[in-house]
Write a structure and sequence with these properties.
Length: 587
């Protein structure tokens, strides 16, 4: 009507209007006709292209929010004056608790050769209902979501799938109703059954690997707790199980396979299991840095946070869905922050693994920030926001297992050293006096049984005071360690070197040893000790005196041999230039 009136006006005034005005009017008419043509050709019906799947709803539909959840599908379809808006391309809708989101769209006529499905990749969705008209003009409903047992879904799946039917001659109009207490910011898309099958095969491969890692972590944790008696491995096993269950809840596998007939638990499982996962992760982290032995106050703070998480899980299990997100959000910030602070504290105080734990926890904290932003509807639903937390944990858990293994090795080495303190000198690594006497006794027994002789040597370091005067206290403290290294380099694999006191050492030389060979042992040790040490001045060398005895000729027992050797070294005058002394035969 507007275009025809406008043309008549131009035609009726063609003789009276000047030609510039006529040209301007003609240009305006052409522009309006072009705009009208664009409007008439705008997309109002979905283009379901099988070669470009998944097909996003994008802005091809309209949405309206029922603020009181009081209208049914027939009322929404027939009632005029509703404030419909184009569906947002990013999929973020201003849906609040106690409201329902209505979306209308139209699919084109097509032969029903392959079944198409409306997919909402949001396993935690409370309710999704798809309405379409049947042959008698009645609206029929398909329903899916956490509040509906999966067995009653039109297509049981990890997340809501609703069947889209086609008419071969006319477009088909649909109404989609969504209710979710935590808002809604998920994409709505359309996929064919064939495309969905191929996509699910890829997802199943990924989830199978993930659950396999979680199961392996549980087995390794239990084995470590049993064999090593380490509580950290028990926390690791619990954390692996809870991570697997949380992944099952967040991906919809739990509702599909583990608890399909429990819609109430399906609705609560994610927040409850996620809270326990954070609790176990905090306790594991504290155990790995030995927090209970290093800071009782900080350990008490971690346990208080863990107990708060346990109480929170109970509250999450009994409260309504609209309140849960408000309850859990502070804990989602507090628990990771506590882990980061503990790791930072341990790293700053020289913990060997604190830095690695801090580095491995950083991706988890970042992914949790993205998840919180998604729940606050700052960003739309995506892999990074929905699966980023669990994907980061898939990287963090192997890193924590590696740290656990290295930590266990370090603890075993420390325990071995502690248990060996009664047999080994801790500063030099040589055997101590009691072990030395035991080996002398055994060598005497072997020598008598096999009718040969062995040698026992006692070595005194005599110039420590001179080294301290000339080169300082540090050089004097290092000198016994250097002497121990020289004795070890002189001894054979079957021989033994020992530290008997601060300045006295001993050696057991296994036989058979002839008197001539025994006479060369002392001078060889003296010459070896007089050689310069790397990193020290040339004059900073060890001067030693050596007394040796052949056994069993020069003593029937270890006590007698060692006593005679000590007596011989003690009786040497300080001004003596002689360095090697032999104990005469026992009589």
């Amino acid at each position: 009507m507007i275009f025809s009136d406008f043309s008549a006006h131009v035609a009726g005034n063609r003789t009276r209007a000047p030609w510039p005005l006529r040209m301007l009017l003609a240009f305006a008419l052409a522009l309006l006709l072009a705009l009208a043509g664009l409007s008439a050709g705008a997309r109002t019906v979905l283009d379901l292209d099988a070669d470009k799947q998944p097909v996003a709803l994008a802005d091809w539909g309209d949405y309206w929010i029922d603020e009181q959840i009081k209208l049914e599908a027939a009322q929404v379809a027939s009632q005029g004056g509703l404030a419909w808006n184009s569906t947002p391309a990013r999929g973020i809708y201003p849906l609040q608790p106690g409201q329902s989101l209505w979306i209308r769209f139209t699919v084109p006529p097509a032969p029903d050769m392959e079944r198409w499905l409306l997919e909402i990749p949001y396993p935690a969705l409370d309710r999704a209902s798809l309405y379409s008209l049947d042959s008698v003009g009645q609206w029929i409903e398909q329903r899916a979501g956490d509040l509906t047992p999966i067995g009653n879904w039109p297509v049981p799946h990890r997340h809501p799938l609703l069947v889209v039917n086609f008419n071969a001659e006319n477009p088909t109009h649909y109404l989609l109703r969504i209710e979710n207490a935590q808002g809604f910011s998920a994409p709505i898309r359309f996929v064919s059954s064939g495309h969905l099958l191929r996509a699910e095969q890829q997802v199943s491969l990924f989830l199978g690997a993930y659950f396999g890692l979680a199961l392996m972590g549980c087995v390794v944790g239990l084995a470590g707790a049993f064999w090593l008696r380490d509580r950290a491995y028990l926390y690791f096993a619990a954390c692996s199980v809870l991570i697997g269950l949380t992944q099952a809840a967040i991906t919809g596998v739990g509702g599909l396979h583990l608890w399909p007939e429990s819609p109430d638990w399906t609705d609560r499982s994610l927040v409850v299991l996620g809270t326990w996962m954070l609790v176990s992760l905090m306790l594991l982290n504290a155990a790995m840095v030995s927090l209970v032995q290093r800071s009782r106050m900080l350990n008490a703070l971690v346990w208080a946070t863990a107990l708060a998480g346990a109480a929170l899980s109970v509250a999450l299990g009994v409260t309504d869905s609209a309140i849960r997100i408000k309850l859990i959000l502070p804990y989602l910030v507090l628990a990771p922050l506590m882990m980061l602070l503990v790791n930072l504290w341990a790293w700053r105080r020289g913990d060997r693994f604190g830095g690695w734990l801090l580095l491995s926890a950083a991706p988890f904290a970042l992914s949790l920030v993205l998840a919180i932003a998604r729940y606050l509807e700052w960003v739309p639903l995506s892999f990074a926001t929905e699966q980023g937390v669990l994907a980061s944990m898939a990287l963090q858990m192997p890193a924590m297992l590696a740290v656990l293994v290295l930590r266990s090795q370090q603890r075993r080495e420390s325990m071995r050293r502690i248990q060996g303190l009664d047999r080994v000198d801790p500063s030099t690594g040589l055997i101590n006096e009691s072990v030395f006497a035991e080996r002398v006794m055994r060598m005497i027994a072997r020598s008598e049984r096999f009718k040969y002789q062995g040698a026992v040597l006692m070595i005194d370091l005599v110039n420590t005071e001179q080294i301290q005067r000339d080169f300082g206290r540090r050089a004097a403290e290092e000198l016994p360690l250097r002497l121990a290294a020289r004795l070890l380099s002189t001894a054979r694999e079957i021989d033994s070197a020992a530290r008997l006191s601060e300045q006295r050492f001993g050696m057991v030389v296994e036989g058979p040893v002839s008197p001539e060979e025994a006479a060369t042992l002392g001078p060889r040790i003296v010459a070896r000790c007089l050689m310069p040490y790397k990193g020290l001045p040339e004059d900073c060398v060890a001067q030693v005196r050596v007394a040796y005895a052949l056994v069993p000729r020069q003593g029937p027992t270890a006590e007698i041999v060692l006593a005679r050797l000590a007596q011989r070294l003690t009786g040497i005058p300080p001004e003596s230039k002689r360095a090697v002394f032999m104990i005469p035969d026992y009589k």
